[in-house]
Amino acid sequence: MKILPQSIRGRLLLAALVFTTAALLFASLSIGQVLDRFVRRGLNERLDAQIALLVRSVRPDGAIDRAMLEEIGPFTQHDRGWGWRIDSPGGTLNSQTIVPPEPPGPPDGPPAPERERRMRERRERPRSEGLPGHYMRSYTRATSGGPVTITVAAPRAVVDRMRRAAVAPLLWSLGALGAFLLAATLLQLRIGLRPLARLKASLGDVRAGRQARVPDDQPAELREVVAELNGLLDENEAALARARGHVANLAHSLKTPLATLNLRLGEAGRDPDGTLGDLVAQIDRGIRHHLGRARAASPGAPGQPQVPLASAVAGLVTALGRIHMERGIAAEVTIDPALTAKCDPQDLDEMLGNLLDNAWKWACARITVSAEAAGPQVRLTIDDDGPGLDAPAIEQALVPGLRLDERGDGHGFGLPIARELAELHGGGLTLGRSPLGGLRVVLVLAG
């Protein structure tokens, strides 16, 4: 069982929580010690101030000036456990034995026995020196009659109460700091991991063919990774190019002789029972199948790029117009510049080259080329005003090696190759009657 999360975000968040919690605990303990010393120091200063007052009542011979003590009186919080005690050679005095003089009462004030009772109650109160849980401060003064020790006391609960009063805001502050650090950590993770999300999107664009390589403008930590990815894409593209070259060589070396053999077998008397023709057709299908798989995909190759149709068609129309200049064919191209096809550029040039060259050969005076988006696909239409083809001739025109007119050059592979390439790229090729009177060729490709 793995303790750490599987994601980088989860691991960083867990580490931040652990370290932040440890830091806050350490800070609370450290600051708590500082606050405790601060509270004790304040209490010591208060008790020391009381000692300084009581020292004034000690005479040089060690005797205690009771009149001075009555003037000083007990602590204002005397009833809450605060008190003092003086140990001198002449005896011990404490704050319970020194009471302020009774204010003079009215003529009909309480009788003497009542005053005596009050005095007795005050003298019988618990003495601070006998109470456990008190915070004590002492001072000894040397006199000619002997040492005099002054002790002042405060309830231990006062220290705890003052500590709690100081610690409570500290805990609230640390809690708010912890919440702020957590929010800052989440924001930091969001900002820090954003380049990984952009890298993922760039790889998706490469796979979909929207861009050829991963952009190099990456953070320093990802530049080496991006360089390795682009190097891998370059190697795969080179391997694909070599494979395509071998496929082209194999296609030229096998298809033409095989088509010629098929035509010869079609002559009278060469294949009476059709067995040899079936074998040739079987070989042709096997070659088409395996060549198609080799051309359609290469292991590790990047996705097919998005090729602008307008520029691809414009370049071929310009080239073919110069080649067939003597025929004076007018070509009209109507394609949105933003329209693209997901196709290999070489395959697209080969398909369009075959189809446009065929239109130029058979057109009388005019050719139109248009394209439109059809859902996830792109439909490119080529019309000419030539003689066109009827339904039986359309079926025969897509048969490899079968030429409908022996007067021109070529071997009859242009339309079949275009259809094969279109099907390998997820599209298709259809022939029909053009509104111009000639042939209409509709090439469908993935958009």
UniProtKB/TrEMBL annotation:
Residues 190-241 form the HAMP domain. It catalyses: ATP + protein L-histidine = ADP + protein N-phospho-L-histidine. Its main location: membrane. Residues 113-128 have a biased composition (Basic and acidic residues). SMART domains: HATPase_c. One of its GO terms (molecular function) is phosphorelay sensor kinase activity. It is found in: Membrane. Pfam families: HATPase_c (PF02518). One of its GO terms (cellular component) is plasma membrane. Residues 100-112 have a biased composition (Pro residues). It is an enzyme of class 2 (transferase). This is histidine kinase. Keywords: Kinase, Membrane, Phosphoprotein, Transferase, Transmembrane, Transmembrane helix, Two-component regulatory system. Its EC number is 2.7.13.3. It comes from Alterirhizorhabdus solaris. Residues 93-142 are annotated as: Disordered. The keyword Transmembrane helix applies. Residues 249-447 form the Histidine kinase domain. The chain crosses the membrane at residues 170-189.
